Amino acid sequence: xxxxxxxxxxxxxxxxxxxxxxxxxxxxxxxxxxxxxxxxxxxxxxxxxxxxxxxxxxxxxxxxxxxxxxxxxxxxxxxxxxxxxxxxxxxxxxxxxxxxxxxxxxxxxxxxxxxxxxxx
Length: 120
Hints:
This protein is an all-alpha fold. Helix content is about 65%, strand content about 0%.
């Protein structure tokens, strides 16, 4: 539960960063997330907010090169979005290993398997 909550917090806080909104604490300090149902509900909503942000980026590279203004030293938007995906992938791998060790493999977690599943 804590790893999933951390993954959600990272996605939320980096989206806010990209939108030049200061992050003043952890998500779970601001929103009650007591169980998996609450986590799932909030993550679905956050996923929609992140997707809306990405869809609103200009199709040229200027938006992706922009750096958030509230941080002293920051990465460009494209670096932050790459980090969000890579961060989640690393934790998905950890969780997959953990559940597999407990005898409950989550199955294929590779992006291409996910993507190809959407296309069939």
